[in-house]
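Would you mind writing out a protein's amino acid sequence and the numbers that encode its backbone to help me picture the idea?
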Amino acid sequence: MDLIEVIDFKKSFGKKQVHRGVSFTVKKGECLGLIGGSGTGKSVLLRSLIGLEKPDSGKILFHGQEVTNRKERDLIEVRKKIAYAFQGGALFDSMTVYDNLAYPLRAHTKLSEKTIADRIHLQLSEFGLQDAEKLYPANLSGGMQKRVGLARAIILEPEVILYDEPTAGLDPYNTRKIQDMILRLKEKGTTSILVTHDMPVAFAVCDRIAMLVGGKIEAIGTIEDIEEKSNNLILKFVHGEVR
C-alpha cells in the first residue's frame, strides 16, 4: 500500500527550476533512500512533505489525502504523524535534553508529567543517552546532538520519519549508532525517507533507492536490483562517475 505519493512535483526558486516533475511512492513500512548531487533539491522534497515548502504544481498525498493545499493549522496533524529529523538536530539551545524531548509531548498531548517522564527516560535509554537528560545542546557532541534530535523527532510515535543527512559529519562510531537506530525503527514498522550521501548507510537500511538527476527521478530500484546491474545509474553515482 502506498502511504506517500509524490506526483509530478515541480518547484522553482526564482529563475532556477529545481524540480521538473518528480514522482515516486513510498509504501507502508518501507525505507526509501533519496540520493543525488548537491543542490538537486532532496531536502526541499522532505520539507514539502510536511508543508514547509509548497510546490509550484503537482501533488503530495499522505494516506491518499492532499498535503500541499492544506492551511497551516491543518498541517499540525500531518506533522504529528510525519516527523522530520533535521540535519543539525534543531534542538532548543536554552532547554536541557529532557525538556527538548518533553516539548512536543507537552504541546501536542494531554499526558501527565509522570507519563511524559517515563516515556522520555525510556527513549533516552534506547538511544544510549540516559546520562544526558540534564545537559544542554552546547554540552553535547555532534553525534549526541543528532541522536537527541532523532529521539525528539520520534517521541510522538509518528508513522513516518524523514531523515535529512542523519550521518553527515559523524565519525564511524556515531554513524553506526544512527544506522542501528534507523534499523530498529524500521523493524517496528516505521515508514521512512532517507536523504543521504552516505551510501553504505543507504544500502544497509533502505529497501529501495531513488536518484534525482536534472529535476526528476531518473533511477529507482531495490538494493538487489541496483547491485545486479553493473551499468545502473545509482551505482555510477556511488562510484563517483556521475553527480
Notes: The CA atoms of residues 226 and 235 lie 7 Å apart. Residues 71-189 form a domain with the Rossmann fold fold (CATH 3.40.50.300). Strands lie at 2-13, 16-27, 31-36, 57-62, 65-66, 82-85, 160-164, 191-195, 208-213, 216-222.
